[in-house]
Structures are given as C-alpha cells and as structure tokens.
Design brief:
With about 300 residues, this protein is an alpha/beta fold. The protein has nine helices and 14 strands. The chain has a single domain (about 5-300), classed as UDP-N-acetylmuramoyl-L-alanine:D-glutamate ligase, CATH 3.40.1190.20. Helices cover about 30% and strands about 25% of the residues. It has an eight-stranded mixed beta sheet, with helices on both faces. Strands 3-2-7-8 form a four-stranded mixed beta sheet, covered by helices on one side. Helix 5 packs across helix 6 (about 205-215). The longest helix is centred in the last third of the chain and has 14 residues, at about 250-265.
Length: about 300
Amino acid sequence: MDKPFDVIVVGELNADLVLTGDVTPAFGQVEKLIDDATLTIGSSSAIFACGAARLGLRVAFIGKVGADEFGRYMLRELNGRGIDTSQAVVDSALKTGLTVILSRGNDRAILTFLGSIAALRYSDINPDFLAQGRHLHIGSYYLLDQLRPGILALFDAAQAKGLTLSIDTNYDPSEQWEGGIRDVLERVNIFLPNNTELCAIAGVNDLEAALHALPTQIIAVKQGAKGALARSGKTIVRAASIPVDVVDTTGAGDSFDAGFIYGFLKGWNTEQSLRLACVCGALSTRAAGGTSAQPTLDEAQRWL
C-alpha cells in the first residue's frame, strides 16, 4: 500500500458504439431499425481498468490514442473514473480505434477498426513508472501488434520492481494462437481466458486437460452464464454465476477479470476471488456497454 497504484493496466484504448436490437445487417442498401445506440468506453483493457477502479482499486492506464475526438473521449472518461492516464500516449499521426457492436442480449457481432490499438510499443512505456504499481495487467494480447515483441521485456521489468502479473489474451482474430504466448504464460501469475481461448492456446479440446497443460500458476476460466472455474497449482475450484436480466454482455469478461484481480490483491483465496469475479461479470450485463453497470464492492458483496 506504499505504492500509488494497485494496478497498472497496459493495453488497447478504443471507444465502443453499442447498437441494440434483434436485427441482422444486410448489404444492398437495406436499412433496418435498432432499439438503442450507446457510445461508451470500449476495449478490454479499459473496461477492466474501470471495473477495478469501481471496486476501489487505485488504477493507472498506459495506452495509445489518436489526437481526435474518440481519443479525447476515452481519456476523459477514464479520468472521470479516477484512473490515472498520465502515461497514455497521444499520437497525432493515428486515428483512435473504434468498435461497433450489434448486441442481442446474450450474443453480439463485433466490428473493430484497429487504428491506434495496435500501435503501442514497449518504447512508449516508461519502465520507471512501473515501480509505482503493485500489479501489472495486460489485455487484448493478440491486438497489440507493436507491443507483443516487447511484452517479455515489459514483464521482466515489472517483476524486477516487485509487481505481480496477469493477462487476458482475448480472442485471436487470426486464429493462429501463437505469437510467443507460451513464453508469456510462463511469466504471469494469473491467466484469465474463456473456454475457447484456453483450449485453443493449450491445443487440446478437453477443458480440464487444457487447465493443466499450461504453466501459469493460476488460471481462471470464464464460462458465461455457467459461472467459472479456476486452477491454482493442481487444485480446481468452481463458482456459479448469479441471476440477472441481461441487457448487454459487452465487457462482462473484463469485469470478471477486475473482480478476480481485486480478490487476488486483497489476499483472498482462489475460490473467494472466483466468486467475486462471477458476480462482477454478471452484474455488468445489466446495461448497454461494458462499464455502465459495473458494481461497487459493497454491491458485489451483497451477492456473496
């Protein structure tokens, strides 16, 4: 607690435009009406950061945006949630990334313009700043094209300064599931995939076999409405989800991550952290966008 930040987040920054309605887009200049449209904080890393701050953790964010309205919007919204963005990079040569989401409650279609998302580099990060945090979290590993070659160096620098490490790779758009991920997973303390991502990276179809096939000490696996399971060492624990009226599942996995990391940093055991993660993920689905319904710690604890 002698450090200014509990969590330093390194990752992508983009706005989300969430379109809600039971429609299927069609080419041929076919116009269809939707129920609602919401411009909100996007990107797995930023939604995680907001969820962690909402729970009471002190959070700093390192990412890159363009010198445009979407970039200003993202930094303004993060700052409004008490997140430090002093280390964020604004590059006038780039456009800020943007994701358009068509949401149907429990399902969604996603279109992403990478823009500045893929442009963050290891050289953009001040290694001395890492000493101000207790924990480092990386999101959307497969979208960080320019940073990936330097992630091992980033992790080594963070560990040398005493930080613990976590990663949520998210989905690999190329579906190659490579990019040195196994070397990365040997260094991190916590890996936070969903079923599909875990099995693809492990190269096996059986979920429990996949849990034991990777070297990370703690793996917490998101399973949507079914809840989650986690392996710590050789022990596997499970936690159920909670009943909610789902409006939009955008960012639910990132809110799950925030809950788990909160428990980890507070010294909770794996089962307690997993239960909080499931509650945070479920409660975040009550409104459009990934951050509007994220719970406070008091609200989440009522479900525990």
